[in-house]
Amino acid sequence: MGAVAWAYVTAVSAGGSTNPAEIIANTICALIPEAGTLAWALALLMFIYGGAKYAYGADDPGARKQGKNIAVNAMIGLIIVAVAYALVNAIANGSPVCP
Fold it and tell me: pTM of the predicted model, to two decimals?
């Protein structure tokens, strides 16, 4: 609710519309880059964690397998994030609401 309140205050103080649909759309447009950055960071951290688990689990085959699975799944997650981010940006940039 804080993001919606922020968008409302921003829209009204800038002389913009008080239409709730426009306020919500502007809020979503403002949050797209932050959500993409957060998703990239989490996927990258999981990849690093999986690689470290793989490297430090040299004596334990179970830990190596788990580390490999985490790293592979993180790479798949990075691909999904990249495709989703590209699609959302393509849709948002074609929208008259998002600048």
Answer: 0.67
